[in-house]
Write a structure and sequence with these properties.
single chain, about 5% strand, 5-stranded parallel beta sheet, 5 strands, about 375 residues, globular
C-alpha cells in the first residue's frame, strides 16, 4: 500500500490524542495531520493532497457537512468520513451526500483504521487519478426513467407497500446501492452489516426513501449517448437478471440464506461501474468497445487498456467507499476474474460469475 496522507478535524482534543496514539503504533507509515479548527484544516487542504479526510459533524466553527462539501470541491478525489453523535432523520440524507461513510461516537478507532486501510487498498487498484476523483465524487448514481416513475408512483400512493417498494428497488442498482449505504451508516446504529435488501428497505422506511427518490438523477439525459455494451437500460435489465440467477444458483448449491442474499445483491450491483463510466467518460467507453471488437477481447480487458482498470473495480471502489459489506464488494470486483479473488470456496462471487456468463450467453449469444 502506498503512503497515505490523512487529515483529522475534530474540536475534541482527547479524541484527537487517542487517534494520534493509536495510529502512531498501528500505522507508522501514514502521514497524519490533526487539527481542531476547520478553517485551519481548509488551509492544510489548500496546501496538501490528502487521501482521506475525517471530520466531526458538530464543530462550533463550521458544520461538518459544510466542511466536507468544501473538501469535496477542493480535493474531489479524497475519501470523506464523518464522525457524529446522535443523528435525527433529517440528518441522514444531508450527511450521505458529502460523506462516504459516517462513524458514531464513541468511535471505534480500530474499526476506523481498518476501514481506511480496506478502502485505500481498493483505491490503489484504480487505474488513474481521473477515475479516483470520478468515483469519490459519486454521491448518487442515475437511474433509468421507467423504474424511477414506477417507484415515484408507488411512493405517492396513500397505501404505499414496503414490499412493493422493495420489489421495484430490487430492479434498480442505483437506488439499491444508496439504500445499502444509508442503512449501514451509524444513523441506524445496527450491530451488524445489512446485506438483505428487504431488511434495508424496512430499516430505512418510506419517508427516507421518498426523500431519496426526489434527489435521484434520471438517465434520460444520457439517452442520446449510445455506446455498444454500455446501454443504461440494457445494463439495468442484465444486472437484475444476473442477481436473480445468482441467487438461484446459490440456493441450488444449498448455500446459507446470507450467501444467497449476497449473491442477489452482488449480481444486481455488479455492473455499476459501467454506469459510472458511460455517464462520465462515454468517448472512452466507445474506445473500449472498439478495442474489444478489434482485438477480439472481452470488454473488461479492453477497459483495462483504456482506463487502467475495469468497470468491476470501479464499482468495487464505490461500494467500498460507501461501506457496503465486503462479501458483496469481492463478488462485484472480481466477477469477471474470480480466480484473482482471495476466497476459493463456493460463495456469492462464484454465483455471480456464473450467472453473469450465463445471462450474457443467453441474451447476446456470447459470454
Amino acid at each position: 500500500m502506498t503512503k497515505k496522507h490523512i487529515l483529522f478535524v475534530d474540536d475534541n482534543v482527547e479524541f484527537l490524542r487517542a487517534i494520534q496514539e493509536s495510529l502512531r503504533i498501528a500505522e507508522p507509515n501514514w502521514s497524519v495531520t490533526f487539527t481542531g479548527n476547520p478553517e485551519e484544516a481548509m488551509d492544510h487542504v489548500s496546501k496538501t493532497g490528502f487521501d482521506v479526510v475525517v471530520a466531526d459533524y458538530q464543530m462550533p466553527q463550521m458544520d461538518g457537512v459544510v466542511f466536507l462539501e468544501k473538501v469535496q470541491e477542493a480535493q474531489p478525489g479524497a475519501m470523506r468520513f464523518l464522525v457524529s453523535g446522535e443523528l435525527t432523520p433529517d440528518d441522514v440524507l444531508r450527511i450521505a451526500f458529502p460523506a462516504h461513510q459516517c462513524f458514531s461516537k464513541p468511535v471505534d478507532i480500530d474499526l476506523l483504521r481498518r476501514t481506511i486501510r480496506k478502502v485505500s487498498a481498493l483505491r490503489d487498484l484504480m487505474g488513474n487519478d481521473v477515475l479516483k476523483r470520478l468515483v469519490a465524487q459519486c454521491s448518487l448514481l442515475p437511474t433509468v426513467p421507467n423504474l424511477y416513475l414506477e417507484l415515484a408512483n408507488e411512493l405517492k400512493s396513500p397505501v404505499a407497500s414496503i414490499r412493493q417498494i422493495e420489489l421495484i428497488i430490487s430492479r434498480d442498482p442505483a437506488i439499491a446501492a444508496k439504500i445499502l449505504q444509508l442503512v449501514n451508516s451509524s444513523f441506524f446504529g445496527l450491530p451488524r452489516k445489512i446485506e438483505s435488501l428487504g431488511e434495508a428497505v424496512n430499516y430505512v422506511g418510506v419517508q427516507i426513501i421518498k426523500a431519496l427518490a426526489l434527489t435521484v438523477p434520471v438517465f434520460s439525459r444520457f439517452e442520446g449517448v449510445r455506446v455498444k455494451d454500455y446501454s443504461p437500460t440494457a445494463i439495468w435489465e442484465h444486472c437484475w437478471r444476473t442477481g436473480v440467477l445468482a441467487r438461484a444458483l446459490a440456493q441450488e448449491e444449498d448455500q446459507p440464506r446470507s450467501v444467497c442474499e449476497d449473491a442477489f445483491l452482488a449480481g444486481l450491483l455488479h455492473d455499476l461501474g459501467k454506469m459510472i463510466l458511460v455517464a462520465n467518460l462515454s468517448p472512452l467507453c466507445r474506445e473500449a468497445t472498439a478495442l474489444s471488437a478489434k482485438k477480439q477481447i472481452p470488454t473488461h480487458v479492453a477497459e483495462r487498456e483504456i482506463f487502467g482498470c475495469s468497470h468491476a473495480m470501479v464499482a468495487a471502489y464505490l461500494l467500498g467507499l460507501w461501506g457496503i459489506p465486503e462479501s458483496i464488494i469481492e463478488a462485484v470486483g472480481f466477477h469477471n476474474d474470480p480466480l484473482e479473488a482471495p476466497s476459493t470456496e463456493f460463495n456469492a462471487l462464484a454465483a455471480v460469475h456464473a450467472a453473469n456468463a450465463l445471462d450474457h450467453a443467453c441474451s447476446e449469444g456470447k459470454p
